[in-house]
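Reopening: Methyltransferase type 11 domain-containing protein still failing for me.
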Amino acid sequence: MFREHIIRRGQWYIRRLWSWFLNATMQSYWEEIDNCKIKVFDKLTAKAEMVLEIGIGTGSNMSYYADCNLNVTLYGLDPNPKMKKYLRKSAAKAGLKPKNFKFKQGVGEAIPFKDASVDAVVATLVLCSVSDVTQTLAEIKRVLRPGGTFIFLEHVAAEDGSFFRRLQKLLDPLQQRLADGCHLTRNTRECIMEAGFNGGVEIETMSMCSFPWITRPHIYGVAYK
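Support: Ran it again with your exact input. Result attached.
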């Protein structure tokens, strides 16, 4: 028991140190990713009045919804119920009316919504961490109405055989442990292309210049049901 306690405390300190390190060194990344988010949220049309964001976290995307459509009703899905109080604050700060934001506890692999019930689904830096990308994409398709849109922004695996890909493979186990299951080597682009979005898929690629360089390759775009 004492040994397990020491291990748990050690893991807790490592996570705290990692969080501090990321906050201290990643400001330029968040600024760069903000420019990318502006591009991807421009694809969220005013017709999308009922939107689901999976892995919403503390609500870092809230302001983009208010900018796109004042009439939007946003459902935030997250496995952590404690996020709800932070999300309420983020929604108010972003200008979303209390009636226009609703929190749902759940995961992307089993979305607690009826078939064809939302106009759009949003996922930013989420598919790297879900336990099953294929199942999550199938769930996204299921809950989308005909003609609905899936908006995404993700970091992905580097090109096969490249130095970055080899480095990602080496660091992937550590990344998963320290970053809540985040994978460095997922071929998310291919997963989205093979998911069967019959309305087509538009994918843009970009390389982030900011730290951490190990997640340099990113994709963003929209898939249509």
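The longest helix spans residues 2-25. If you still see a failure, please send the error message rather than a screenshot.
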